Amino acid sequence: MTTKDLKVLVVEDEKVLAFVVEEMLQEYEITNTVVANTYNDGLKWIDPDKIDLALLDINLGAGLSGIDLAIECTRLQIPFIYLTSYTDKKMLDLALKTTPGGYVVKPVSPAALYSAIKIVFNKTQEQQYFYNFKDGTKNVRLNVNAILYIQADGIYSNIVTTDRKYLVRTSITAALADLPKEYFIQVHRSYIVNIKFVSSYKRNIIFINEIQIPLSRSFKTTFRETIS
Predict the structure, then answer these.
(1) CA distance 59 to 12
(2) Cβ pair 60, 39 in contact under 8 A
(3) pTM of the full structure
(4) Is residue 51 domain-shared with residue 79, that is, in the same domain?
């Protein structure tokens, strides 16, 4: 994933400025954007299945604040950046408590905007990856650091984590495509492992603590190269 792949929400009550910000994003080939001009419209888009990053104006008019949207972003682990012309210390102190990824001061410049996005993007990539899927009717955003391995089960896959198991309607091929390649590798036609949890291996068996995962001949060379 690169910054060009980001799905970005812009929440700005000044429609002209919102358009300008969207144009600036396009200059850096960030084209998957959506604009909301009110608090309520913005709230509809704050969903990890819909966006990767939110750009939030602090003052949305009518007594509403981008800080309230930021709190929702934090709850859903969606990174956000404030767009602000505020100099009021009380408001800025409130904004600071929401731990934003950054601030861009109005009038917004393309370079400052992209620099803030790049910093947040790099930090997010370094810190965590998420795997999004449906568990029944519930949308799950799972930190991949919790996944031990994935096992094929017919048209489903068992996603086994450090504390539970999910049965998801997906193939392991599709799951592997959505997981970070530096951590996850297929070791058998029915298994993907998170190499961070591999404790040892011998011959045709991989150990994740006491769990034994089969290692097939066709994947053995790639596995050894990756694990070394």
Answers:
(1) 8
(2) yes
(3) 0.58
(4) yes
